[in-house]
Structure to design on (366 residues):
DNA sequence: TATTGTTATACTCTATAACTATA
DNA sequence: TATAGTTATAGAGTATAACAATA
């Protein structure tokens, strides 16, 4: 005999293969994020957000406004201020008023921050390689990138978290999906 | 001209297509988790962990020990106790000593908990469908499930978080990857 | 002795709203 | 008026270690 459905009558359950994809995705990414976080914390005493902030700075020209950073990283502005404060206290970044717009804060990566990234990035890549990248064929890499880009665009296409945000529309995929060309 | 590499000389950068897969995966799952969390909070005032606890109970016979629950859900035991406490205070689950093992706590889903799941599950599925499942072809579903199952097994195969755990080895994929057959 | 689970405690992170200053 | 950012504050969640009870 089979279990009774948890869904109300008339609700058609999702295709089992898709459901399996969803569950496997949830579990695998949760485990992967755990491993990555552990590594970043152990090697550089960095939270994932802090690492992302530094990476974004290190991958570009070393500067960004708080708004630039907040847009890509799903954060609230105050949360970003908090994390940036931690980075600044450690001397990994500096914050100054932007000359262009006196309201804006220009975040600049410090040499110590760049050094830290250079120190921990190889290990980070090793973790990701071992637990994910090495398990993919070339074809699968393309497929996965394809699928996830589609999902990202789909989610970013609607008013999701922006309803809560102060910033206006500008819902034109401001995220940094392309991997930095500096690896 | 191109940016200087962030990697030390001698370190071979990962294949760009794999890197792209990794970045897209990170961003897409982060956005997806955000949406799902927002829905669960808005509709049922549940955290993701609380939802997972209830789902695991509702998908089985309605009972589980704290250890059973802690094994699948990446949690520390104290964190699980905290979340279970919240659920119990709301009358969504009950906790009693196990008759088999007087040390163990038997967690049982309450009718209110089952009702809550029945109420919010359709919306949850709708979110996941809209933002993920509907974007996949049958073939892609299979591919994604295949890839992520491999990743999960790879990560669970080693001593990852268990080094921190109190529980002994038993590293035999205790996770609940199979989607509940009750949807 | 080892295992199950809880508690005490401290800490990290996040979000909301109020506030300042500039555009 | 709207935007950029900070701050104050409060709450949610997590982890560690110590603990009690049972195996």
């Amino acid at each position: 005999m089979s279990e009774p459905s948890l869904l109300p009558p008339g609700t058609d359950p999702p295709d089992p293969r898709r459901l399996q994809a969803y569950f496997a995705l949830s579990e695998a990414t949760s485990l992967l994020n755990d491993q990555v976080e552990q590594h970043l914390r152990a090697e550089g005493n960095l939270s994932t957000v802090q690492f992302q902030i530094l990476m974004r700075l290190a991958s570009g020209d070393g500067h960004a406004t708080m708004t630039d950073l907040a847009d890509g990283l799903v954060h609230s502005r105050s949360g970003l201020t908090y994390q940036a404060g931690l980075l600044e206290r450690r001397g990994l970044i500096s914050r100054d008023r932007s000359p262009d717009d006196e309201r804006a804060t220009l975040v600049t990566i410090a040499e110590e921050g760049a050094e830290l990234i250079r120190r921990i990035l190889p290990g980070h890549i090793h973790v990701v390689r071992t637990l994910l990248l090495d398990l993919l064929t070339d074809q699968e890499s393309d497929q996965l990138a394809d699928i996830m880009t589609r999902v990202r665009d789909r989610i970013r296409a609607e008013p999701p978290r922006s309803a809560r945000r102060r910033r206006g529309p500008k819902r034109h995929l401001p995220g940094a999906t392309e991997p930095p060309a500096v690896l």
Remarks:
- The two ends of chain B are 54 Å apart (CA to CA).
- Chain B has a mean pLDDT of 88.
